[in-house]
Amino acid sequence: MQETKWEKFVHRLGIGWLAIFFAFFLSNILLGGSASSGYITDGSYFLGDKGIYIAVHPLVWYFSKTLGVIVFLYFVILFPVLLIHNLTKHLPMDPK
What we know:
Layout: H1 5-31, E1 34-41, E2 44-49, E3 52-56, H2 58-88
Antiparallel strand pairs: 1-2, 2-3
Helix pairs in contact: 1-2
């Protein structure tokens, strides 16, 4: 059976989210934490991971924060799309 445009869209959206999440996960490992768990104080930027904080350059902190927000927003879009896709997958299609 051939994939519809909707199924291709859902598939690509899922693959895209996995790629973004993997990039976020990998950056957390390589940088030693994330800005979502970190903080800014007195002009110093810290990435956090399980209560351990690492001082980083502001650009690194903003990169981590931006990547975290993108992962979250992408999931906010992906979740309802997957829900709709799975709920309507078994509905009969009437071409009339």
